[in-house]
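Hi V.,

Quick status before I head out on leave. The structure for the redesign project is tokenized and pasted below; the design run finished overnight.
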């Protein structure tokens, strides 16, 4: 059994991004900038935003955080976003979710043009992913999962990939990505019947549910590859959706939680910001 080491893969990719940014600065005098808009004082969001700032600094991306109060009006937040939409120096715009409830999230997210949509959640980027076009920006967590599988040279073509979870940010885009890699993809969710039958057919099993230890070793194929995106907090500890000790008895490859998928999400955000900026520069 091999551990899929998200910290290692993440730091390898971050070094590549850093190198590419230095080259772009040398060749074009290009600087890269990410703007993050956050409204309210959700403690988890504040931690995420601080981590994003730190990661940007590490690879040489300038970052700005626009911190708006909980009671910010729809007009105010929209004009802050529009300022960045129209600023050529800003390569990527990210609105930290969740937003306070009184705000119209859909209207806010729609203001971000697809070429600055570094979360990859816009209709246009989702459409490009669905059509297999490579000139969009991909959602960070599923893209990070693909990078993990590729780093370890895990064969994908023809494999049965079973994804548990169908959210717009992980499960659904990952299904499209694995389809593009020629996997035979099954997407399971809360209404799926006989989940264990699907699990037992998986060559590659990805969980993105948010339920501690939903999956254990019981129904797994020998040699399965397991990628666990779940983050479940309990008594100050983080657990995955997969019971690692039991599942690792059957798996050839498995991600730990923490230290597997987690570090890849911000890494792919850095990658998208670089990509958005370099595409603009080389156009
Ligand atoms: P979500 O709540 O939007 O979706 C959960 C999915 O799980 C749904 O599609 C639901 O149908 C399915 N589900 C729920 N109970 C089920 C069950 N008993 N059997 C089968 N399917 C079931 O969640 P999300 O935003 O996709 O996040 C999923 C998990 O991934 C969470 O733990 C979240 O914290 C984590 N996550 C991690 C990262 C990261 O950076 N590592 C990023 C995003 C999400």
């Amino acid at each position: 059994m091999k551990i899929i080491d998200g910290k290692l893969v993440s730091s390898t990719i971050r070094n590549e991004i850093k190198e590419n940014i230095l080259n772009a600065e040398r060749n074009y005098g290009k600087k890269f900038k990410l703007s993050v808009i956050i409204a309210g004082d959700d403690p988890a969001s504040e931690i995420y935003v601080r981590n994003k700032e730190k990661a940007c600094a590490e690879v040489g991306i300038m970052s700005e955080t626009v911190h708006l109060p909980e009671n910010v009006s729809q007009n105010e937040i929209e004009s802050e976003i529009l300022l960045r939409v129209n600023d050529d120096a800003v390569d990527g715009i990210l609105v930290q979710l969740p937003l306070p409830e009184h705000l119209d999230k859909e209207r806010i997210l729609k203001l971000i043009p697809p070429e600055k949509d570094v979360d990859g959640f816009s209709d246009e980027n989702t459409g490009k992913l669905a059509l297999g076009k490579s000139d969009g920006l991909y959602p960070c967590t599923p893209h990070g999962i693909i990078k993990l599988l590729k780093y370890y040279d895990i064969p994908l073509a023809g494999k049965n990939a079973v994804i548990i979870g169908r959210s717009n940010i992980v499960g659904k885009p990952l299904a499209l990505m694995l389809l593009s890699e020629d996997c035979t993809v099954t997407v399971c969710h809360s209404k799926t019947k006989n989940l264990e039958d699907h699990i037992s057919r998986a060559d590659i099993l990805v969980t993105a549910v948010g339920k501690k230890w939903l999956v254990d070793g019981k129904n797994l194929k020998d040699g399965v590859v397991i990628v666990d995106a779940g983050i479940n907090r309990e008594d100050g500890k983080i657990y995955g959706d997969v019971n690692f000790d039991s599942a690792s008895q059957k798996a050839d490859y498995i991600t730990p939680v923490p230290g597997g998928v987690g570090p890849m999400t911000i890494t792919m955000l850095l990658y998208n910001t670089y990509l958005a900026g370099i595409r603009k520069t080389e156009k």
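Above is the designed sequence. The mean pLDDT is 97.

G. will cover questions while I'm gone.

Best,
W.
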